[in-house]
Amino acid sequence: TMSQILQYYTVKNLYMPDYVRDSSLYRRMMSTLDVMPDVAVHRPTEDVRIDLSYGSLWINPTKLYEPGVTLGSDDAHAMEENNYSLITSVYFGDISLLLAGDAEQDRITEFMGLLGDTVAYDVIKIPHHGGYDKALAELLRRNTGLRYCMVHAGSPSLVEASLVTAMRTSGAAAKFTYDGDIAFATDGTSMTVEQN
Hints:
- The protein is α/β, with parallel strands linked by helices and 196 residues long.
- It has helices spanning 2-8, 24-34, 78-83, 105-112, 134-142, 161-170; strands at residues 13-15, 19-21, 40-42, 48-52, 55-60, 69-71, 87-92, 95-99, 123-126, 148-151, 173-176, 182-186, 191-195.
- The strands form four sheets. A seven-stranded mixed beta sheet has the order 4-5-7-8-9-10-11, with helices on one face. The chain has a two-stranded parallel ribbon with strand order 1-3. Strands 2-6 form a two-stranded parallel ribbon.
- Helix 1 packs parallel to helix 2 (24-34) and helix 5 (134-142) packs parallel to helix 6.
- It starts with a helix and ends with a strand.
């Protein structure tokens, strides 16, 4: 959970979607942040571009919903919460990664509207635990040079066959977390992906 990440790593800046969740997990995260005054919390409502000495980040928040809302604790808000996902592009030398959070079809469609006709990510972290939708399939189809797709799923039964087909059609190698932890490394030119 995010509370554990905050306790195990030194975090200076935390970017999170601009909503409040009425849930124990969210409250636990916010309680952890309350005792960490050195962590700057950012809730972007516009694109954020961060230049780093070794690359850059593009953090894209959604415009599908109003910022600053409180979502209920029940499952009725699950899709809305998923679509609040910040979609982050990471650029390092010649290598680029797309981290799509838990974005669902409407959110992926919104994000693709910001991209040109050709999408060129080397690695895509597939959103939403292996679920398939047409927007995700289109994102994979439009991507040139895609080398890896990473899927966070607890078991093979959670990964839809249509997604596996779309990833294979893209030419990318698929990696699934149910097969073990995935470690990605790059020097900006070449990259390695290991799983154990």
